[in-house]
Amino acid sequence: MNRDSAQVVVRPAAVKDWRAVLKQAMRAHQADDPDHAEQLYREVLDLRVAQPDALHYLGVLCHQGGRSDEGVELIRTALQVTPKHPDAHNNLGNIHKECGRLREAEACYRKALEHGPQHYNALSNLAVVLEAQERPQEAFEAYEKLLQQAPDFAQGHYLLGLFLRNHAQGLEHIEQSVACFREAYALEPRFVQALEALSVSLYVLGRSDEAVQVYRDWMAREPDNPIPRHMLAACGGADAPVRAGDAYVRDIFDRFADSFDEQLLQNLDYRAPQVLAGVLNAVLPAPAAALDVLDAGCGTGLCAPLLRPHARQLAGVDLSGGMVEKARQRGGYDALDVAELTAYLQEQPDAWDVVLSADTLVYFGELGPVLAAAHAALRPGGWLVFSLEAKEGEEDRVELTASGRYRHSRIHALRALERAGFGDIRIDEDSLRKEFGQPVRSWVVRARCVDAATAAAERLPA
């Protein structure tokens, strides 16, 4: 054959294996590389239209990135292809739960259990949303069923312990929580949340020596861990610091970032964002998106939708990067920063018309420095609104409690505000949440940034 007349054979390009691409996407997802993971999931869907695992995991990824509605639609599409997939039903329930749609979440978890009766995560999630809907008997039955089916599931024992303590109607329920936390830790020795919960229950029962010993043993194993160091002081085993250390606060809230809203749902009467927003609404003009507002200790962003109508600019700051990431996913803020609150405020002179702080100053003992920083950060006439846990008595007192949070007397808060230069001060008692089944007494505080002469005049006796 003549070389010039030889035919050139063109071979088709090799088609990518969608299964291999899906594995790469899942690895990128697990490695916290969301952009690459999304690109690969969508590549799978180009190669294999409506591939249900890619739809399912892409839906989870979208929710984690703050695109919850898109995530819901993707998982629903996956379930049209594989309607009996318990993991997909469970994850769809998780999105609804984290968006506050508890009835929809409950329906998803029940679907997951219909198609996967041994799906322990779905059963524990069902218990949580039943509890959040104030259906404690059904929640208790779900926890009991979970532990009957999975007696070695450490998380189940821990969640039942929290449930018993949160809804305690007597000391016997606290005693039962102790047994649950001990079992959780015995099953999973790295489960340090169970140790912390165990010590708190022991302290509530008056067994402070046992609580102190739990923290000392923990410190002996992990001498650099700030959590047992702080909690040892909270139980009276060491001198109390003037405020909770940065490392302690950061570690606690980074660790709980993924379940923080869920924990608040379990504290069925948690009302701090709504109550503080109501105090603001009473002193501010009608919402006109005209103010610069700071959510000081923003956490996962629960206050954002309540503050947004007033805000030209809404910023959030928190010491926990994990919490700030959750707030970023929730949306509503113009800016979010990870920083220690006092230092952040000191670097923001005359920057804000409103500073709101829900359940953040409970991690400060002496309030003077942070309130002085807040005064400097507010513009003249600006408002500071915050909550504290209340300590009884007429003395100027601060107390670190077994929860790791501080309680302040009314006179301590009042004097610290006056020294900082605030006027138009109002401190009301309320209950913003429950602990151990009982309402926690709280102070709801409102104060205005005024000039020195006005503040002094307001302190003069009538």
Automatic annotation (TrEMBL):
Sorted UniProt keywords: TPR repeat
SUPFAM superfamilies according to UniProt: S-adenosyl-L-methionine-dependent methyltransferases, TPR-like
Pfam family, one: Methyltransf_23
InterPro entries (alphabetical): SAM-dependent_MTases_sf, TMTC_O-mannosyl-trnsfr, TPR-like_helical_dom_sf, TPR_rpt
Transmembrane annotation, as ranges: none
Signal peptide (from-to): none
Residues in TPR repeats: 86-119, 120-153
PROSITE patterns listed in its UniProt record: TPR (PS50005)
Protein name, as recorded: Tetratricopeptide repeat protein
Organism from which the protein derives: Dyella agri
